[in-house]
Amino acid sequence: MPARLRRDQVLATERAVAAVDLLMQNAGGNAMRTGAHAVQRAWRDAHTGRAHAVNAPESALTLFGRTALGLDVQDAAHLC
Q: How many domains does the chain have?
């Protein structure tokens, strides 16, 4: 169960980043100006969250795959 939750968390993060990237691409040049533009803030927040070690797709998806196959699992992310 925890492996599935980690997988779902990472996939949700990836989808959120993809969605906010689309928003930024279509927001126009005004969204790129320095300041408190809501789309720029959402873009920064999503990318910052994605950069956290617990959101690393490779480790979470490997954990899920190993669990699904009944293999030994060692996950350091639970220490975060």
A: 1
Q: How far apart are CA 76 and CA 62, in angstroms?
A: 12
Lowest-pLDDT range of 3-7, 10-14, 27-31: 27-31
Q: What is the CATH number of the domain that holds 43?
A: 1.20.140.10
Note down the domain range covering 60.
2-74
- pLDDT tens readout for residues 56-72: 899 889 999 999 999 98
**pLDDT attached to residue 79:** 40
Question: In 3D, which of 80, 21, 79, 78 has the Cα closest to residue 45?
Answer: 21
- The answer to whether residue 8 is domain-embedded is yes
